[in-house]
Amino acid sequence: MDTFTANLEALKRLLPREHLSLLERSGSVPVELQEGAIPTLLLAGRVVHSSRAPEKEAARLFEHRPELRHAQVVVFLGFGLGYHLEAFLEKNHYGEAWVLEPAPEVLLHAARVRSLTRILSSDRVKILLPSPDVPHRLYHDLLGKGSEKIFFHSLPAYAHAFPDEAARLASLVNRIRETRRINRFTIERFGRRWIRNLLVNLPWLLYGRGIELLQNELPYPTLLLAAGPTLDQIGSLLPELARRCIVVTTDTAFGWAVAHGVEPDFVVIVDPQYWNIRHLDHMDRGTSLFIMDPAVYPSLIRRHASRSLFTASPSPLAAYLSRWIPFRARLGAGGSVSTTAWDFCRYIGSNRIFCAGLDLAFPGGRTYYRGSLYERLRHSTSWRLNQPIQEETLGLWEARADIVKTEGASPLITNARMKLYASWFSLHLPESTVKSARITGPGLPIDGMEQFPPEDILGLPPVREQVDARIREVLSVDLPPHTPDTKTGEMACAIYDHLLEGLSDLDFLLEQGLKTLDTWDGTPQHAQEIFSSLEGVDGRIYTHPLRDLVGFLLQDIVDRLSDEPALEHVLGNSRIIYQKIREGVVLHRTEIERAREMAKKL
Fold first, then answer.
1. What is the largest CA-CA distance in the chain?
2. Is 258 exposed, middle or buried (0-12, 13-18, 19+ CB in 10 A)?
3. Residue 3: what pLDDT?
4. For residue 76, what are the β-bridge partners?
5. Cβ-proximal residues to 99 (8 Å cutoff; 6+ apart), any chain
6. Where would I find the beta strands (DSSP E) of 262-388?
7. What is the DSSP string of 179-190?
8. What average pLDDT does the segment 359-366 reach?
9. Residue 91 in contact with residue 60, Cβ under 8 Å?
10. For residue 304, what is the DSSP state?
11. 420 CA to centre of own chain
């Protein structure tokens, strides 16, 4: 089999069948191959690789950018003739190369003049061709890698020929890294609280109802209220808007809606903290239904179990408990309750979503609507040397604040976190069949979300009676009791015992691994014996059903391990991993035993 045929067969195995036809199409950028002793590829008239020493040029890339040597993923714009990818496989011993080739015919040119076996046979190389779903796929797949060691590199000729694509990919990778960074800090801050709440809530979750009851059941316009400063713009219109729309609020905006005379139909709650449920004070006698993450603060569920509908949680503990918990539907989680609330509006079948207070910025230097819990707490805790304006300023400028210019409006203050939320909306709006619009502003621009005058909603026909009747009809079946009974408590205790048994088994494996590491005498020969002994332990840990559960709080551990190849560093990395997983075992065991004692009292 000649080189071209072998390369082509490898490409057919690597690429989806529907993409193979793209290889023979000429794109908008001219591609020219100059064959010779050293083949040269021209892209829009520019040389893609050195025409004299392409291998040395590719190796120098990893000298200039040493972070690529230890990256978990490098997203490359451009396959070219593959020299830089061969250098990647040589210099980086464990990472993956994700290659987006915007001119697919380049792959055929490369296949004709070079053997690509090393690249195309590697399970560490993934090739992507132009497709509308590429940004979405990259975002979700790379975010799931659980690491901040994700980088972008474009060959210079590709950056010149495809500047928009290069900018989009660079922005996407930066967004993924920033999301991972924020997720890591969030887990460090709230991870233990999530675990504690979920375990304590288990008896209520066992007989709870999920949002599946509402899927595509409410094909009406929906008014989504977030807690931004511009929410105050529609206060006088709210009662009339509520007659024409389903009303969905975030937990932070619930008090504002009630203060303006409207009891929301649904309140979306995802934050696990105690202070977050204080947004829902004085609403025990209301009619709102609560769309809850299973890990919300326990007292909220205890007070409102019969008015609660649960989503599935993405946490490993919730995923493991899903074999007993009866609900499965999961909503989008872009880091903000407003992203989950928007996805809930889409889930229930809304035919239009009108967003108010979704500012993702600080218009007028304000952080929330007037009279919010945040504002009241700020005033109640102030004193002479700690004035509210100081807290306001800190709130404005934390999380890498930035000034954004918007068309027809004054510059807005926003920050990195708000930009991530906007990016999440921009990524998901195109895949939605329901149109979304803002009715208050100004706010951080969101691609795909238009501005709509709130007064125009008043021209829509009233639907309040139909909405109320439909919600009553959907939720009239299988009403849960206000509190779990003894049988439910016993079932929860059985699940806790099952978890404790699995944790004991995992702890035994970790102890074996640590004792084996303690025997190392410092010689390479003994290190090889230790590695052989640990293979069996590692295999059992890797396949243990509770592995992901206890590793939830340790997602950043890979980024903190040593990259040095010396034996003491390799063995040290194993010790760190075992110790950190063991810390997770101890944490979960402590929280399970605590929750078990509470369940026994039911």
1. 83
2. middle
3. 85
4. 99, 153
5. 75, 76, 78, 79, 85, 125, 126, 127, 128
6. 266-269, 289-292, 308-310, 352-356
7. HHHHHHHHHHHH
8. 82
9. no
10. H
11. 10
Would you say residue 594 has pLDDT above 90? yes
Among residues 474, 476, 208, the alpha carbon closest in space to that of 348 is found at: 474
Q: How far is CA 588 from CA 321, 490, 593, in A?
A: 13, 20, 8
pLDDT digits (tens, 9 = 90+) for 299-315: 888 888 878 899 998 78
Higher-confidence residue: 477 or 88?
88
Q: Say if CB 262 and CB 237 are below 8 A apart.
A: no
What is the residue type of 550? V
- Residues in the chain, total: 602
Q: Kindly provide the residue ranges of all beta strands, DSSP E only, lying in 234-316, ordered along the sequence.
A: 246-250, 266-269, 289-292, 308-310
pLDDT digits (tens, 9 = 90+) for 461-481: 999 999 999 888 887 766 666
Q: What stretches of 406-564 adopt beta strand conformation (E)?
A: 412-415, 436-438, 450-451
Classified as helix, coil or strand, 516 is helix
Cis peptide bond upstream of 442, omega within 30: yes
Of 539, 380, 355, residue with least CA distance to 446: 355
- pTM across the whole model: 0.81
In this structure, the number of other CB atoms found within 10 A of the CB of residue 189 comes to 10
Mean of the per-residue pLDDT values for the chain?
84
Q: Which residues fall within 8 angstroms of residue 198, CB to CB, at 6 or more apart?
A: 294, 295, 313, 315, 317, 318, 321
Q: Tokens 């048994």 belong to which residue?
A: 501
Q: Residue 465: what pLDDT?
A: 94
